[in-house]
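Form 7-S
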Amino acid sequence: MNLKSKIILLAVVPLIVATAIITYLSLQSAKDLAAQELAIYEFNLINVKKQALKSHVGIAMSAIKPILDDYSLDDKVAQEQVKKILTRLTYDDDGYFFVYTMDGVNLVHPTQPIFVGQNLWNFQDRSGNYLIQHLISAARQGGGFHRYIWEKPPYMIQEDKIGYSIMIERWDWMLGTGLYLDDIYDELAKTQAIMNSNIQKSFFSVIVIVIVTVILVILLGLAINLHEHRLADSRLKELVQRFMRIQVNERRRFSRELHDGINQLLVSCKFRVELATNKLKRNHDVKVIEGELDKAEELINQTINEVRQISHNLRPTLLDDLGLDAAIQSLTSQFSERTGIEIFYSGKLINDLPDEIEITIYRLIQEALSNIEKHAQANKVTINIWQDKTTVKLECLDNGKGFSQNTELLPGIGLINMRERMELIGGDFTLESHKGAGTKIYAKLPLEQTL
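Output:
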Protein backbone atom coordinates (compact mmCIF):
# COMPACT_ATOMS: atom_id res chain seq x y z
CA MET A 1 0.00 0.00 0.00
CA ASN A 2 1.49 3.34 -1.05
CA LEU A 3 1.66 6.47 1.07
CA LYS A 4 -1.30 8.15 -0.64
CA SER A 5 -3.57 5.19 0.10
CA LYS A 6 -2.40 5.11 3.71
CA ILE A 7 -3.12 8.82 4.15
CA ILE A 8 -6.61 8.47 2.64
CA LEU A 9 -7.25 5.35 4.76
CA LEU A 10 -6.07 7.21 7.84
CA ALA A 11 -8.64 9.93 7.14
CA VAL A 12 -11.52 7.65 6.10
CA VAL A 13 -11.33 4.84 8.70
CA PRO A 14 -11.64 7.09 11.82
CA LEU A 15 -14.49 8.92 10.09
CA ILE A 16 -16.36 5.69 9.40
CA VAL A 17 -15.69 4.26 12.88
CA ALA A 18 -16.74 7.50 14.61
CA THR A 19 -19.85 7.77 12.42
CA ALA A 20 -20.76 4.12 13.10
CA ILE A 21 -20.44 4.61 16.87
CA ILE A 22 -22.40 7.88 16.80
CA THR A 23 -25.06 6.34 14.54
CA TYR A 24 -25.40 3.27 16.79
CA LEU A 25 -25.71 5.42 19.91
CA SER A 26 -28.17 7.71 18.15
CA LEU A 27 -30.30 4.76 17.02
CA GLN A 28 -30.32 3.29 20.51
CA SER A 29 -31.22 6.65 21.96
CA ALA A 30 -33.95 7.11 19.35
CA LYS A 31 -35.35 3.63 20.10
CA ASP A 32 -35.30 4.26 23.85
CA LEU A 33 -36.96 7.63 23.36
CA ALA A 34 -39.57 6.08 21.06
CA ALA A 35 -40.28 3.38 23.67
CA GLN A 36 -40.69 6.03 26.36
CA GLU A 37 -42.98 8.11 24.17
CA LEU A 38 -45.07 5.04 23.32
CA ALA A 39 -45.35 4.16 27.01
CA ILE A 40 -46.48 7.70 27.80
CA TYR A 41 -48.88 7.65 24.86
CA GLU A 42 -50.30 4.30 25.99
CA PHE A 43 -50.68 5.59 29.54
CA ASN A 44 -52.55 8.65 28.31
CA LEU A 45 -54.85 6.60 26.06
CA ILE A 46 -55.62 4.15 28.86
CA ASN A 47 -56.18 7.03 31.24
CA VAL A 48 -58.73 8.42 28.78
CA LYS A 49 -60.39 5.01 28.77
CA LYS A 50 -60.47 4.99 32.57
CA GLN A 51 -62.09 8.40 32.71
CA ALA A 52 -64.66 7.25 30.16
CA LEU A 53 -65.40 4.15 32.24
CA LYS A 54 -65.99 6.25 35.33
CA SER A 55 -68.26 8.50 33.33
CA HIS A 56 -70.26 5.56 31.95
CA VAL A 57 -70.64 3.98 35.40
CA GLY A 58 -71.71 7.36 36.75
CA ILE A 59 -74.40 7.59 34.03
CA ALA A 60 -75.61 4.07 34.89
CA MET A 61 -75.81 4.91 38.58
CA SER A 62 -77.76 8.06 37.72
CA ALA A 63 -80.20 5.95 35.71
CA ILE A 64 -80.91 3.54 38.56
CA LYS A 65 -80.60 6.02 41.42
CA PRO A 66 -84.36 6.86 41.60
CA ILE A 67 -85.12 3.19 42.12
CA LEU A 68 -82.34 2.72 44.67
CA ASP A 69 -83.55 5.70 46.64
CA ASP A 70 -87.21 4.54 46.59
CA TYR A 71 -87.41 2.32 49.63
CA SER A 72 -91.17 2.05 49.25
CA LEU A 73 -90.62 -0.50 46.52
CA ASP A 74 -90.19 -4.13 47.39
CA ASP A 75 -86.60 -5.25 47.04
CA LYS A 76 -87.44 -7.90 44.47
CA VAL A 77 -89.46 -5.46 42.39
CA ALA A 78 -86.75 -2.84 42.67
CA GLN A 79 -84.05 -5.36 41.75
CA GLU A 80 -85.91 -6.48 38.66
CA GLN A 81 -86.39 -2.89 37.54
CA VAL A 82 -82.63 -2.18 38.03
CA LYS A 83 -81.70 -5.34 36.10
CA LYS A 84 -83.98 -4.34 33.20
CA ILE A 85 -82.55 -0.82 33.06
CA LEU A 86 -78.92 -2.01 33.13
CA THR A 87 -79.62 -4.75 30.55
CA ARG A 88 -81.03 -2.22 28.10
CA LEU A 89 -78.41 0.46 28.91
CA THR A 90 -75.56 0.40 26.32
CA TYR A 91 -73.09 2.85 24.84
CA ASP A 92 -70.87 3.01 21.76
CA ASP A 93 -70.90 -0.17 19.64
CA ASP A 94 -69.93 -2.73 22.26
CA GLY A 95 -70.38 -1.04 25.64
CA TYR A 96 -72.59 -2.72 28.23
CA PHE A 97 -72.94 -3.13 32.02
CA PHE A 98 -72.68 -6.22 34.19
CA VAL A 99 -73.81 -6.95 37.76
CA TYR A 100 -72.56 -9.60 40.19
CA THR A 101 -73.32 -10.53 43.76
CA MET A 102 -70.49 -10.57 46.28
CA ASP A 103 -70.19 -14.35 45.97
CA GLY A 104 -69.67 -14.15 42.18
CA VAL A 105 -73.18 -14.92 40.82
CA ASN A 106 -73.89 -13.02 37.60
CA LEU A 107 -77.14 -11.01 37.59
CA VAL A 108 -76.84 -8.90 34.42
CA HIS A 109 -74.90 -9.66 31.22
CA PRO A 110 -76.53 -8.29 28.02
CA THR A 111 -74.04 -9.75 25.48
CA GLN A 112 -73.79 -13.22 27.02
CA PRO A 113 -77.07 -13.91 28.88
CA ILE A 114 -75.95 -17.52 29.29
CA PHE A 115 -73.85 -16.35 32.25
CA VAL A 116 -76.89 -14.93 34.10
CA GLY A 117 -77.53 -16.94 37.27
CA GLN A 118 -74.13 -18.69 37.09
CA ASN A 119 -71.52 -18.43 39.79
CA LEU A 120 -68.34 -17.14 38.07
CA TRP A 121 -66.29 -16.63 41.20
CA ASN A 122 -63.59 -19.03 39.97
CA PHE A 123 -63.83 -17.98 36.32
CA GLN A 124 -60.41 -17.35 34.71
CA ASP A 125 -59.46 -15.76 31.43
CA ARG A 126 -56.84 -17.38 29.20
CA SER A 127 -54.01 -15.79 31.19
CA GLY A 128 -55.24 -17.39 34.44
CA ASN A 129 -56.68 -14.15 35.77
CA TYR A 130 -59.58 -14.50 38.31
CA LEU A 131 -61.26 -11.46 36.86
CA ILE A 132 -64.59 -11.61 38.78
CA GLN A 133 -62.79 -11.83 42.11
CA HIS A 134 -60.59 -8.83 41.24
CA LEU A 135 -63.53 -6.74 40.03
CA ILE A 136 -65.47 -7.47 43.24
CA SER A 137 -62.38 -6.65 45.31
CA ALA A 138 -61.94 -3.32 43.44
CA ALA A 139 -65.62 -2.47 44.02
CA ARG A 140 -65.35 -3.19 47.76
CA GLN A 141 -62.43 -0.70 47.93
CA GLY A 142 -64.71 2.09 46.78
CA GLY A 143 -64.35 1.51 43.09
CA GLY A 144 -61.36 0.49 40.96
CA PHE A 145 -59.97 -0.74 37.66
CA HIS A 146 -58.86 -4.16 36.53
CA ARG A 147 -57.42 -5.44 33.22
CA TYR A 148 -58.39 -8.81 31.83
CA ILE A 149 -59.18 -10.69 28.62
CA TRP A 150 -62.76 -11.08 27.38
CA GLU A 151 -64.67 -11.92 24.20
CA LYS A 152 -65.49 -8.91 22.05
CA PRO A 153 -68.77 -8.97 20.10
CA PRO A 154 -69.90 -9.50 17.43
CA TYR A 155 -67.19 -12.08 16.53
CA MET A 156 -66.47 -12.92 20.18
CA ILE A 157 -62.72 -12.65 19.65
CA GLN A 158 -60.79 -12.44 22.89
CA GLU A 159 -59.28 -9.00 23.41
CA ASP A 160 -57.62 -7.12 26.23
CA LYS A 161 -60.14 -5.15 28.25
CA ILE A 162 -60.08 -2.77 31.18
CA GLY A 163 -63.01 -2.82 33.59
CA TYR A 164 -64.25 -0.45 36.28
CA SER A 165 -66.52 -1.58 39.12
CA ILE A 166 -68.32 -0.02 42.10
CA MET A 167 -70.69 -1.22 44.79
CA ILE A 168 -74.48 -0.91 44.78
CA GLU A 169 -74.63 -0.54 48.52
CA ARG A 170 -78.37 -1.27 48.93
CA TRP A 171 -78.03 -4.92 47.92
CA ASP A 172 -74.20 -5.46 48.02
CA TRP A 173 -74.05 -5.84 44.29
CA MET A 174 -71.05 -5.11 42.10
CA LEU A 175 -71.83 -2.90 39.10
CA GLY A 176 -69.22 -2.63 36.39
CA THR A 177 -68.45 -2.04 32.76
CA GLY A 178 -65.40 -2.34 30.54
CA LEU A 179 -63.80 -1.02 27.39
CA TYR A 180 -61.72 -3.03 24.95
CA LEU A 181 -58.10 -1.97 24.36
CA ASP A 182 -57.64 -3.26 20.80
CA ASP A 183 -58.13 0.24 19.36
CA ILE A 184 -55.37 1.50 21.68
CA TYR A 185 -53.05 -1.28 20.52
CA ASP A 186 -53.88 -0.49 16.89
CA GLU A 187 -53.10 3.18 17.51
CA LEU A 188 -49.87 2.30 19.29
CA ALA A 189 -48.87 -0.05 16.46
CA LYS A 190 -49.46 2.71 13.88
CA THR A 191 -47.52 5.20 15.96
CA GLN A 192 -44.66 2.74 16.45
CA ALA A 193 -44.62 2.01 12.72
CA ILE A 194 -44.35 5.76 12.02
CA MET A 195 -41.53 6.11 14.57
CA ASN A 196 -39.66 3.12 13.14
CA SER A 197 -40.07 4.55 9.66
CA ASN A 198 -38.67 7.90 10.83
CA ILE A 199 -35.74 6.15 12.54
CA GLN A 200 -35.03 4.15 9.38
CA LYS A 201 -35.19 7.29 7.27
CA SER A 202 -32.80 9.02 9.66
CA PHE A 203 -30.48 6.00 9.55
CA PHE A 204 -30.46 5.90 5.75
CA SER A 205 -29.94 9.68 5.68
CA VAL A 206 -26.89 9.27 7.93
CA ILE A 207 -25.59 6.45 5.72
CA VAL A 208 -26.00 8.62 2.62
CA ILE A 209 -24.26 11.54 4.33
CA VAL A 210 -21.41 9.26 5.43
CA ILE A 211 -21.01 7.83 1.93
CA VAL A 212 -21.01 11.30 0.40
CA THR A 213 -18.54 12.52 3.06
CA VAL A 214 -16.23 9.55 2.48
CA ILE A 215 -16.34 10.15 -1.27
CA LEU A 216 -15.58 13.85 -0.72
CA VAL A 217 -12.71 12.97 1.65
CA ILE A 218 -11.27 10.54 -0.89
CA LEU A 219 -11.63 13.04 -3.74
CA LEU A 220 -10.17 15.81 -1.59
CA GLY A 221 -7.31 13.53 -0.56
CA LEU A 222 -6.62 12.62 -4.17
CA ALA A 223 -6.76 16.29 -5.17
CA ILE A 224 -4.38 17.27 -2.37
CA ASN A 225 -2.05 14.40 -3.22
CA LEU A 226 -2.12 15.37 -6.89
CA HIS A 227 -1.44 18.99 -6.01
CA GLU A 228 1.39 18.03 -3.65
CA HIS A 229 2.79 15.67 -6.27
CA ARG A 230 2.82 18.43 -8.86
CA LEU A 231 4.26 20.85 -6.34
CA ALA A 232 6.96 18.34 -5.40
CA ASP A 233 7.76 17.80 -9.07
CA SER A 234 7.97 21.56 -9.55
CA ARG A 235 10.24 21.94 -6.54
CA LEU A 236 12.39 19.03 -7.69
CA LYS A 237 12.76 20.57 -11.13
CA GLU A 238 13.60 23.91 -9.58
CA LEU A 239 16.13 22.22 -7.29
CA VAL A 240 17.74 20.42 -10.22
CA GLN A 241 17.91 23.68 -12.15
CA ARG A 242 19.58 25.39 -9.20
CA PHE A 243 22.03 22.53 -8.84
CA MET A 244 22.84 22.70 -12.54
CA ARG A 245 23.23 26.47 -12.31
CA ILE A 246 25.67 26.07 -9.41
CA GLN A 247 27.58 23.49 -11.42
CA VAL A 248 27.66 25.80 -14.44
CA ASN A 249 28.89 28.70 -12.30
CA GLU A 250 31.57 26.50 -10.75
CA ARG A 251 32.68 25.31 -14.18
CA ARG A 252 32.70 28.85 -15.54
CA ARG A 253 34.83 30.01 -12.66
CA PHE A 254 37.14 27.02 -13.08
CA SER A 255 37.36 27.68 -16.83
CA ARG A 256 38.06 31.35 -16.24
CA GLU A 257 40.78 30.55 -13.71
CA LEU A 258 42.37 28.10 -16.14
CA HIS A 259 42.20 30.56 -19.02
CA ASP A 260 43.14 33.74 -17.19
CA GLY A 261 45.63 32.19 -14.80
CA ILE A 262 47.23 28.89 -15.69
CA ASN A 263 46.91 29.33 -19.45
CA GLN A 264 48.57 32.79 -19.36
CA LEU A 265 51.35 31.51 -17.11
CA LEU A 266 52.01 28.51 -19.38
CA VAL A 267 52.05 30.75 -22.45
CA SER A 268 54.55 33.06 -20.74
CA CYS A 269 56.63 30.09 -19.67
CA LYS A 270 56.64 28.73 -23.22
CA PHE A 271 57.65 32.18 -24.51
CA ARG A 272 60.61 32.31 -22.05
CA VAL A 273 61.75 28.81 -23.03
CA GLU A 274 61.53 29.60 -26.76
CA LEU A 275 63.37 32.86 -26.16
CA ALA A 276 66.15 31.04 -24.29
CA THR A 277 66.35 28.44 -27.11
CA ASN A 278 66.68 31.12 -29.78
CA LYS A 279 69.38 32.92 -27.80
CA LEU A 280 71.20 29.64 -27.34
CA LYS A 281 71.16 29.05 -31.11
CA ARG A 282 72.53 32.55 -31.68
CA ASN A 283 75.31 31.92 -29.17
CA HIS A 284 74.20 34.59 -26.76
CA ASP A 285 75.86 34.98 -23.43
CA VAL A 286 75.19 32.08 -21.06
CA LYS A 287 74.11 34.39 -18.25
CA VAL A 288 71.45 35.94 -20.50
CA ILE A 289 70.14 32.47 -21.37
CA GLU A 290 70.17 31.43 -17.70
CA GLY A 291 68.20 34.56 -16.86
CA GLU A 292 65.50 33.58 -19.31
CA LEU A 293 65.39 30.04 -17.91
CA ASP A 294 65.18 31.42 -14.34
CA LYS A 295 62.14 33.49 -15.39
CA ALA A 296 60.62 30.37 -16.99
CA GLU A 297 61.22 28.44 -13.74
CA GLU A 298 59.56 31.24 -11.78
CA LEU A 299 56.54 31.07 -14.10
CA ILE A 300 56.38 27.28 -13.64
CA ASN A 301 56.39 27.76 -9.84
CA GLN A 302 53.58 30.30 -10.15
CA THR A 303 51.65 27.82 -12.31
CA ILE A 304 52.13 25.09 -9.69
CA ASN A 305 50.87 27.41 -6.95
CA GLU A 306 47.92 28.42 -9.12
CA VAL A 307 47.03 24.76 -9.77
CA ARG A 308 47.33 24.08 -6.04
CA GLN A 309 45.00 27.02 -5.30
CA ILE A 310 42.42 25.86 -7.83
CA SER A 311 42.59 22.35 -6.40
CA HIS A 312 42.13 23.80 -2.92
CA ASN A 313 39.08 25.75 -4.06
CA LEU A 314 37.52 22.65 -5.61
CA ARG A 315 38.02 20.50 -2.55
CA PRO A 316 40.29 21.70 0.28
CA THR A 317 42.75 18.98 1.21
CA LEU A 318 42.61 20.08 4.84
CA LEU A 319 38.93 19.18 4.85
CA ASP A 320 39.83 15.56 4.11
CA ASP A 321 43.01 15.41 6.13
CA LEU A 322 42.22 17.35 9.34
CA GLY A 323 38.49 18.04 9.21
CA LEU A 324 36.19 21.04 8.99
CA ASP A 325 37.48 22.94 12.01
CA ALA A 326 41.09 22.93 10.81
CA ALA A 327 40.07 23.82 7.25
CA ILE A 328 38.09 26.85 8.46
CA GLN A 329 40.95 27.99 10.69
CA SER A 330 43.33 27.75 7.75
CA LEU A 331 40.87 29.63 5.50
CA THR A 332 40.36 32.44 8.02
CA SER A 333 44.08 32.73 8.76
CA GLN A 334 44.95 33.08 5.08
CA PHE A 335 42.11 35.58 4.66
CA SER A 336 43.34 37.70 7.57
CA GLU A 337 46.93 37.67 6.30
CA ARG A 338 45.85 38.70 2.80
CA THR A 339 43.26 41.36 3.70
CA GLY A 340 44.26 42.53 7.16
CA ILE A 341 40.68 41.95 8.39
CA GLU A 342 40.57 40.53 11.93
CA ILE A 343 38.55 37.30 12.25
CA PHE A 344 37.23 35.76 15.48
CA TYR A 345 36.32 32.13 14.90
CA SER A 346 34.56 29.76 17.33
CA GLY A 347 33.68 26.18 16.38
CA LYS A 348 31.79 23.81 18.68
CA LEU A 349 31.20 20.58 16.78
CA ILE A 350 30.12 17.47 18.71
CA ASN A 351 31.12 14.84 16.16
CA ASP A 352 32.03 14.32 12.52
CA LEU A 353 29.65 15.72 9.94
CA PRO A 354 28.58 14.30 6.57
CA ASP A 355 30.68 15.41 3.60
CA GLU A 356 27.89 17.48 2.03
CA ILE A 357 27.40 19.38 5.30
CA GLU A 358 31.12 20.07 5.69
CA ILE A 359 31.65 21.29 2.13
CA THR A 360 28.48 23.42 2.30
CA ILE A 361 29.62 25.13 5.50
CA TYR A 362 33.10 25.66 4.08
CA ARG A 363 31.71 27.15 0.84
CA LEU A 364 29.32 29.41 2.77
CA ILE A 365 32.19 30.82 4.84
CA GLN A 366 34.36 31.10 1.76
CA GLU A 367 31.63 32.96 -0.14
CA ALA A 368 30.82 35.18 2.84
CA LEU A 369 34.49 36.17 3.27
CA SER A 370 34.75 36.88 -0.44
CA ASN A 371 31.75 39.20 -0.25
CA ILE A 372 33.15 40.92 2.84
CA GLU A 373 36.48 41.49 1.09
CA LYS A 374 34.85 42.89 -2.05
CA HIS A 375 31.92 44.89 -0.68
CA ALA A 376 31.72 45.25 3.12
CA GLN A 377 34.71 47.52 3.93
CA ALA A 378 34.86 45.78 7.31
CA ASN A 379 37.82 45.33 9.67
CA LYS A 380 36.29 42.71 11.95
CA VAL A 381 34.44 39.45 11.28
CA THR A 382 32.97 36.98 13.79
CA ILE A 383 32.23 33.38 12.76
CA ASN A 384 30.43 30.95 15.08
CA ILE A 385 29.58 27.30 14.39
CA TRP A 386 27.73 25.05 16.86
CA GLN A 387 25.92 21.74 16.67
CA ASP A 388 23.15 19.84 18.45
CA LYS A 389 21.60 16.43 17.80
CA THR A 390 19.59 17.47 14.77
CA THR A 391 21.17 20.60 13.25
CA VAL A 392 24.38 22.47 12.58
CA LYS A 393 24.19 26.25 12.80
CA LEU A 394 26.46 28.87 11.27
CA GLU A 395 26.59 32.58 12.05
CA CYS A 396 28.82 35.13 10.30
CA LEU A 397 28.81 38.81 11.33
CA ASP A 398 30.86 41.75 10.05
CA ASN A 399 31.07 45.40 11.07
CA GLY A 400 31.09 46.71 7.50
CA LYS A 401 28.98 49.32 5.79
CA GLY A 402 26.01 46.99 5.27
CA PHE A 403 23.39 47.50 2.57
CA SER A 404 19.65 47.79 1.98
CA GLN A 405 18.29 44.36 1.14
CA ASN A 406 15.45 45.85 -0.93
CA THR A 407 17.68 47.74 -3.37
CA GLU A 408 21.22 46.36 -3.26
CA LEU A 409 20.86 42.57 -3.08
CA LEU A 410 22.39 41.74 -6.46
CA PRO A 411 23.14 38.28 -7.91
CA GLY A 412 26.77 39.19 -8.41
CA ILE A 413 27.64 39.30 -4.73
CA GLY A 414 27.16 35.53 -4.32
CA LEU A 415 24.23 35.53 -1.88
CA ILE A 416 21.98 33.71 -4.34
CA ASN A 417 24.56 30.93 -4.65
CA MET A 418 24.73 30.69 -0.87
CA ARG A 419 20.97 30.43 -0.57
CA GLU A 420 20.76 27.82 -3.35
CA ARG A 421 23.47 25.72 -1.73
CA MET A 422 21.42 25.67 1.46
CA GLU A 423 18.21 24.75 -0.33
CA LEU A 424 19.91 21.82 -2.06
CA ILE A 425 20.43 20.10 1.30
CA GLY A 426 17.16 21.32 2.88
CA GLY A 427 18.71 24.00 5.07
CA ASP A 428 17.55 27.50 6.04
CA PHE A 429 19.42 30.66 5.09
CA THR A 430 18.69 34.16 6.37
CA LEU A 431 20.49 37.47 5.91
CA GLU A 432 20.15 40.64 7.94
CA SER A 433 21.80 43.88 6.87
CA HIS A 434 21.28 47.60 7.30
CA LYS A 435 23.30 50.49 6.01
CA GLY A 436 26.06 51.39 8.45
CA ALA A 437 25.23 48.44 10.74
CA GLY A 438 27.07 45.56 9.10
CA THR A 439 25.72 42.24 7.83
CA LYS A 440 24.70 39.04 9.57
CA ILE A 441 24.40 35.67 7.82
CA TYR A 442 22.64 32.81 9.62
CA ALA A 443 22.36 29.25 8.29
CA LYS A 444 20.81 26.13 9.79
CA LEU A 445 21.61 22.74 8.22
CA PRO A 446 19.58 19.64 9.14
CA LEU A 447 21.46 16.44 10.00
CA GLU A 448 18.54 14.00 9.65
CA GLN A 449 18.11 14.44 5.91
CA THR A 450 21.78 13.89 5.21
CA LEU A 451 22.75 11.08 7.58
